[in-house]
Amino acid sequence: MSTPVLFKWRQFLPQIILLNVRWYCRYSLSYRNLEEMMQERGIKVDHSTINRWVLQYAPELDKRIRQHLQPTNNSWRTDETYIKVRGVWKYLYRAVDSAGNTLDFMLSAKRDGKAAARFFGKVLKGQHTQTPRVITVDKNAAYPVAIDTLKADKTLAAETELRQSKYLNNVIEQDHRNTKRIVKPMMGFKSFNTARRTLSGIEAMNMIKKGQVKGIGLGDSVSQAKFIEAIFEVSA
Predict the structure, then answer these.
(1) Residue 192 near residue 109, CB atoms below 8 Å
(2) Between β-strands 102-108 and 88-97, what pairing exists: parallel, antiparallel or unpaired?
(3) What is the per-residue pLDDT across 189-215, written as a single tens digit (0 to 9) for each?
(4) What is the separation of C-alpha 99 from the centre of its chain, rounded to a whole number of angstroms?
């Protein structure tokens, strides 16, 4: 059986690597939890090795699922949540559509108009997103500034409505819970880059879990696992 280039020179089979990356990014587990779980299966792997796997392959997972995502609708819900990096709170911008499907995400050191504009620009470039009819946000003053900037340079359509309503944004606030639940055992990140790379895997797994991948049913964990192996060109 040939080994995909991405896994060349790895001591462990690609299937084992992807299993650990998938579990870490989907469930509320620590690296030491996974080390013990692997030992029960007769596989001796250090938790620091699993950490390296996640940092390398989590961003790749996010990158590879993009072209397989189903289109989202044109009603956006946007908000930011807090992520601790080296003891300091950073900001994770997130957006979903009115049905709760993830549009995109972005970790930022700042929470201002420039950061919000950069995030909206990222969402607009998504392969599975469409130009929004309405963008619902909370009362954060940075959002109107960002929308005005994007409309001024014609990145965003002039007719797009900005709606500031905390009540209507419940869907995104509820969606934050999955990310916070998984991040909690990590007890903060040691660097901004570590946080960014790990969060990309968590968000990617969340999109898969929600059933956003074409042809993969909601809650079908077996098909989801096979899909991940397939996009990494790993044979069963």
Answers:
(1) yes
(2) antiparallel
(3) 999 999 999 999 999 999 999 999 999
(4) 17
Q: Residue 147: exposed, middle, or buried by beta-carbon count in 10 A (0-12, 13-18, 19+)?
A: buried
**Residue type at 6 in one-letter notation:** L
End-to-end CA distance of the chain: 10
Between CA 104 and CA 120 the distance in angstroms is 9
Give the single-character DSSP code of 130.
Answer: -
Residue 118 has phi, psi (to 5 degrees) of -65, -40
Q: Is 106 helix (H, G, I), strand (E, B) or coil?
A: strand
Map tokens 């995909």 to a residue: 4
Question: H/E element holding 93?
Answer: strand 88-97
Coil, strand, or helix at residue 180? helix
What is the rounded distance in angstroms from the CA atom of residue 194 to the CA atom of residue 211? 27
What distances in angstroms separate CA 8 from CA 13, 21, 102, 229, one per listed residue? 10, 17, 32, 15
In one-letter notation, the amino acid at residue 130 is: Q
- pLDDT, tens digit (0-9, with 9 covering 90-100), for 99-150: 999 999 999 999 999 999 999 999 999 999 999 999 999 999 999 999 999 9
CA–CA separation, 8 and 2 (whole Å): 10
Q: How many CB atoms lie within 10 A of CB 106?
A: 21
According to DSSP, residue 165 is labeled: -
Q: Write down the CATH number for the domain with range 75-179.
A: 3.30.420.10
Question: What token pair was written down for 189?
Answer: 């990140």
The predicted model scores a pTM of 0.93
Residues for the chain: how many in total?
236
SS3 164: strand
Domain with CATH 3.30.420.10 in the chain: 75-179
